[in-house]
CheY chemotaxis protein or a CheY-like REC (Receiver) domain (Allosphingosinicella indica), 266 residues
Amino acid sequence: MSLGQDLAPHLPFLRRYARALTGSQAHGDAFVRATLEAIVAAPDDFPRDVDPRLGLYRTFHAIWSSANIEENVDGDDVDDTHEGIAKARLARITPLSRQALLLTAMEGFTPEDAGYLIGAEANEVDSLVAEALSEIERQTHAEVLIIEDEPIIAMDIETIVRDLGHEVVGVAVTREEAVSQALARRPGLVLADIQLADDSSGIDAVKDILAEFQVPVIFITAFPERLLTGERPEPTFLITKPFQRSTVKAAIAQALFFDTATVPAG
């Protein structure tokens, strides 16, 4: 099997990670493109002594570490207010901590593998993850709308959200309910399932909401690869079903990290 065939199944998930790390589909996808270009240009440099997925993320991290993350990738425009708030939070939590959190909680790497990717020992990764969660949870607070038609899943998400110190302003099970509740409460974060109770789409509900006001959105789906092609406007933050509580916590923390409307807690 060729290297390209080995890497293809892992590309959607690298896109997820890159988008979450940068807080932007455009910026994240640009780093993924740069990673693939580097592999094509020098295939002999690709790490062959590890699993292909690990090698792919390792190459991505080499690109990420060498880039100036304060500069735009591919000339994309970044809103000054959005960038300013992200920079202010970056001053209080190191990028390495955020990387460790996302690699373990969202991407499912072991502390050992995450350490390989970021150049740290496994015990250091554990400390970095704890530091990231503590700092981000302390910095952010939001009112959250949950769009989910499975009662048990909705209750679980609601518990996680409240445990993080956020307020749940509503739980909607249809597109119409979601839009109505969003317009009534204007939440600071939306957690949206893809398939809703009346066969309507959570994606359409979110499009309706975003047409009225801007709000960070985390999509929840059992088929993430369908929304991570890089070929059209797609979610920046995505959780895969079935999910771990730590994954939801990491996604919420990261989405709010880049949100200009979120205010410091306390």
Confidence is low (pLDDT under 50) at residues 68-81, 261-266. The chain has twelve helices and five strands.
